[in-house]
Amino acid sequence: MQYSMRSADVSRRRLDAVRRVGALCLLASILLTAHPVTAAPAAQTPAAGEKIFQEKCTACHTIGKGPLVGPDLQGVTQTRDRAWLTRWIMQPDVVLAEQDPTAVQLLAQYNNVPMPNLGLNESQVAALLAYLESQAGGAAGAVQPAAPAALPVGDPAAGRALFMGTARFQNGGPPCLACHSIAGIGALGGGTLGPDLTAAFNKYGDAGLAVFLNTTPTLTMNAVWSRQPLTPQEQADLWAFLQQASLAARDPATLNQLIGLSVVGCAALLLLAQLWWRRRLRGVRRPMVARATH
């Protein structure tokens, strides 16, 4: 009997201990729900922003050295609202589609070249703005974006071969023709996923085009070329080819070839339609003739 009472007492103590542990777990879960643990945000320092600026922005912008494809960004954090800047840098395509007055004005001012969506997240944009703020006053000793390394001498013919795909890129990238067209590559031209590059040299300028080929800052190009970058010689050859293409308009003979191909294509379609129609009529006439003869 005494043993049974001791056993029951031990069981009650164990049950009380389990209940206490359960209560503590419940309390902890409530506290964690009320104050969730969040990961530390990514670095939003000027140094991190400088790295992003050099990788993504220097093809189109400078800080204190004048406009390129886009405006000079010296003091931009003082002249533009921060919330607007954040949204503009993160989603320029959306802001333009909404016909934001400032965005529309900038587009018209800079030759209707839209700012590309660079795929930056909010933390990266905050770091970029921190860097631009650190450069706003143009203080002595402020770090300016590093100038791109000088390219070797380029060969326009080699650049054309790379563009067309008759020569392969060393790191395995696709030919430019898959996405772009340009003057002097034949009647059928190239792809339409990206813009026509005939005027790319005039649009970006000497240094701007070199930086663009080196950093491939747009979202689509970065996705393609970040893992298979162009070598310095390939950049130089493409640069030389694009420069050469900018000096020449599209050959009028190309338009004549396109018109001729269109006429031949239409004639072929008409011929096929006529043959199909004749066969259709024969299919109707034969049963009628057969019935009449019987």
Describe this structure in words.
The longest helix has 42 residues, at 252-293. The chain has helices at 2-34, 46-56, 76-79, 82-90, 92-97, 101-109, 122-134, 156-164, 200-215, 219-225, 232-246, 252-293. It is mainly α and 294 residues long. The chain has four domains: 1-38; 46-134, Cytochrome Bc1 Complex, Chain D, domain 2; 156-246, Cytochrome Bc1 Complex, Chain D, domain 2, CATH 1.10.760; 258-294. The protein is extended. Mean pLDDT is 76; it is low at 32-42 and 139-145. It starts with a helix and ends with a helix.
Short note summarizing the structure:
This protein is mainly α and about 290 residues long. About 60% of the residues lie in helices and about 0% in strands.
Question: What spatial form do the alpha-carbon principal axes imply?
Answer: extended
Number of helices: 12
CATH architecture title of the largest domain: Orthogonal Bundle
Q: What is the name of the CATH topology of the largest domain?
A: Cytochrome Bc1 Complex, Chain D, domain 2
Q: What is the C-alpha radius of gyration, as a whole number of Å?
A: 33 Å
Structural category is: mainly alpha
What is the count of β-strands? 0
Helical amount: 55-70%
What ranges have pLDDT less than 50 throughout 5 or more consecutive residues?
32-42, 139-145
